[in-house]
Amino acid sequence: MPSNDITLIDHPAGRDTALYPVFEDLKLNRYRVVKEVLAETGHNWQLRTFRSQVIALYAAGTKAIDYWHQEEPTNPDALMMWARVLTQRMFHLRHPANNLAVINAANQARRACHAAIRACQQCPVAWTCLLGLAQFDADPRYKQDAAEHWAPSQTIDALPDGPWPLFWAVRQRDPENREAYQRMLQFFYACGGGAHVFAQWTAMRAGECSILHMPPLYAYAEDYRHRRSSQGTSDFRYWTDHQVRHYVERARDGWFTYLDADTRSSPALSIDLNLLAYALTVSGVEGAGPVFEAIGPYATAMPWQNLVPRSNWAEDFHQARAYALAQQHVSR
To answer: If residue 221 lies in a helix (H) or strand (E), which one and from where to where?
Structure first.
């Protein structure tokens, strides 16, 4: 029988060990290691997007990137991280979107994004930041003031208006940039509709071995989280709905099944793998065992802490993993 005796590593960097020294530097308001890691990352857009996002989560609460931006104001990596940090700080504000302080902070972040884009035209990261900032203009009452965020999709499909020009700009540079799809979903969550339409449209056009089979699972996860928080109950029957199971199977068969061992170990895919394992488990769809093997000890807050109602999320992860590996062992 497979062993379930693993110690979970609950860290945003997951298996990306190159990032761990970064956080020690950030605590001291230093940026040297950040600079080195980003230089090593180069034009690997998937890894660059992931690393810069994780770094910004921590750096937003420090002065490290502020100092880097001040000392090297023309360095493309410094400009990109400055855009990242200012965008991340927006999510820490507790004022309504029409508050003057929020509007000013958003405008400053957007200026930083455009400076980063001018410094490195081919990099998608600053465009994903602009997508993230679009949700602060998600109130449809103010469409006329944010045309860039309420544009038609320019496709033949009946898709809701949204920040499509920004989305297409990311796709020109990195067609399957996973964060761009997450930011589009967040925009539609913020404006109160359209997330499922967008997610299903994305999955319908996804080819084999495409991570674009995953957005419906994120849309279902957010819907489930909202229902659980508003109703105060957890109804796992949500995940056994025929349509939900359909998209869970598509994510398994259209994306995960094709991944080789090296791709499965990519740190940028940790949340996707954890969400797929969770969805397979709670929907009753087979095949979670190999996904848990790919995850290893690198559990992520989404979904195990965000969707599981119990406080001991690690126990839920262990139980789901043990069951999946046992089922895999029996079927061999």
So the answer is: helix 215-231
